[in-house]
Amino acid sequence: MPTTRITLDSTFIDQVKHKIKPHWGELGWVTYKRTYARWLPEKNRTETWDETVKRVIEGNINLDPRLQDLPSQDVIDELTNEAQQLFRLVYSLSATPSGRNLWISGTDYQKRNGDSLNNCWFIAIRPQAYGDSHIVPTYIDKRKEAVSMPFSFLFDQLMKGGGVGFSVVDDNINQIPQVDHQVDLSVVIDKNSKSYDASLKVGAIDKAEWEKNNSDLDNVIYYRIPDTREGWVLANARLIDLHFNDTNPDQKTKLVLDISDIRPYGAKIHGFGGTASGPMPLVEMFFDINNVINERVGQKLTAVDATDICNLIGKTVVAGNVRRSAELALASSNNQDFIKMKQDKEKLYHHRWASNNSVAINSKFNNYGPIADGIMHNGEPGIVNLDLSRNYGRIADGYQAGIDDDVEGTNPCGEISLANGEPCNLFEVFPYIAEQQGWDLKEAFSLAVRYTKRVTFSHYDWEVSRNIIQKNRRIGVSMSGIQDWLLNDLGHRVVTGFKDATDKETGASIKKPIYDPQGIKMVDGLYHAVIAADKAYSEELGVNPSIKHTTVKPSGTVAKLAGVSEGMHFHYAGYLIQRIRFQASDPLLPALRKCGYHTEPDLYTKNTICVEIPLRAAHADSKNFASAGTVSIAEQFATQAFLQTYWSDNAVSCTVTFQANESNQIAPLLHQYRHTIKSTSLLPYYGGSLKQAPKEPINKKTYEDRVAMITGDVKEVFENQNKDQKGLELVDQSDCASGACPIK
């Protein structure tokens, strides 16, 4: 039966464009054009903002399951009106879906890969069954547990542009059986392949030569890897599973992987976009992973081994195309080998950079000293309190035993607690901008709820994901520009001071934060509007209400569109220079230079140009303004606790910045907020101390002098210069403040 389709007509869009001016930040249009504007081959140009928003909203509204049958006219009218409201909301930049949705929603790729609408995922590293998934190795039953499965899930999702959190806690790693076999791996390539010479340099061998020397194939598994994402995943699965008796009943120990069919470096990747890396990074990965497992024959893999395998996969995914690999490894808090694994500098630079590392704790944990020491030296580990995540929504709503009992970890940025196989599902409202654009905030957040709810009706490739999504319908409605909004509406920051108090369990003296009552009322009212909207829409659709609803994502790229502070974070400085890195051939560079922006060669990467853009934070001159360089570590912890208590029933992503003289406060503050904060991470504040730092604080006069040098509108100049320019690719930007999550 054909599906009824909701569309936004051109007359409506023209009316909106006439009435509403998008609230572009100083970096907004440039960031949009280079990150989310897709190439339109039929028009020989990239999208305009209204075309992007139309594509995104139509891609989402048509996920409503009622459209699969013959919907009533009332349903069609309801969804058409909602699509128009969503268009106004997003076009004005009062809110946006996640960066993934801005890039993927409404495309053919979305229709083929429902997973692609979700930013990030979580998987437990333990033997699991593939089930009814789009990737199932032919050599095992789909219901049989395999060591390879979670690695295959991670590899697949990373290649589809998602970040992946993974758990290597003791309970998971102990389920992996001992390594039974050493595998003799050969990688072969045909002389006719364009990648022949480059592949030989990284360990591949000539296919004809191998065949001449290996006539006895009784103990050999030969796999010619198809030039597909699935082919890469299945080859790696075969390599891993041969090491274990359960998935290698014939006990064959020689594996030959034929890479002859894999497209060469620079070839176009259809669907997701970008260019191919060629087979060379894959060859290196195969040998590296095989070495990790071979070294454990007769023993069990460790948490460090499993993390290394995930990191080696992540390293391969980022090679040579537009994807970024975002990983978060979560291990048991007593695993000192894991906590110290990045101290091995050779392995750090080779592959261990590919994940942010955290430890799982509960509210009884009190050994924060080693964690604080690690944070002071290299910014890790972060902490994830699984006890709080499983038994609490908002802290204000009190203990609710097992309310989210399946939670095992988190996404790479820490704002969503997740069960095995579960994804993030994000949308963010900019309340400061939405109020300026005349929105009732409760209406804006209600639209966000319905948008994210529809994403749960996508077709998901993995059975483990389908099952948990249908059960939980978890959504993550976020707000960004929080500091701008609170300072504007309250006239001051939400933490108004601290009072002396005593820790009820330890008797230790603490400083308890004092919150503005109106600030509490503001976020609490919006939370209840979100709950009401989910309840109403769930009843319409005949599905369970979402298990959790609200979050604070770190934002980053999306926040730049509207020019607001990122998530809950304070602006890096009141006035600053933001450096964006461009490929030297990028067609935006001439427009930026013509408009007066300072450009210079990047000190760290060849063929890359740094562009300096002066920025001013909202309320930069207010006496109550604070930046990441001036706000205390105590107030940042207190602000995260405020949002976890009164707004977010999932978690709050926060990277607390600290000055050198505040490092002795890290352990005490982590302990003080053990019953409040579900996850957090910390980094030292660098200011402008690094050469060509991404963000460099400046004073007001320097800002004004830089602005005075800028003439013309980059958008207009670019459009006049480039009537037919193809694909623009972003360098060194991310969808998250920490740089952890992928753009697209």
TrEMBL record:
The active site is at C413, E415. It comes from the Bacteria. It is an enzyme of class 1 (oxidoreductase). It catalyses: a 2'-deoxyribonucleoside 5'-triphosphate + [thioredoxin]-disulfide + H2O = a ribonucleoside 5'-triphosphate + [thioredoxin]-dithiol. GO terms for molecular function: cobalamin binding; nucleotide binding; ribonucleoside-diphosphate reductase activity, thioredoxin disulfide as acceptor; ribonucleoside-triphosphate reductase (thioredoxin) activity. Disulfide bonds join C120-C424. Residues 8-107 form the Ribonucleotide reductase alpha-helical domain. It holds the Pfam family RNR_Alpha. GO terms for biological process: DNA replication. Its EC number is 1.17.4.2. Its cofactor is adenosylcob(III)alamin. Residues 183-293 form the B12-dependent ribonucleotide reductase insertion domain. Keywords: Allosteric enzyme, Cobalamin, Cobalt, Disulfide bond, DNA replication, Oxidoreductase, Redox-active center. PANTHER family: RIBONUCLEOSIDE-DIPHOSPHATE REDUCTASE (PTHR43371:SF1), VITAMIN B12-DEPENDENT RIBONUCLEOTIDE REDUCTASE (PTHR43371). Monomer. Belongs to the class II ribonucleoside-triphosphate reductase family. This is Adenosylcobalamin-dependent ribonucleoside-triphosphate reductase. It comes from Lactobacillus helveticus.
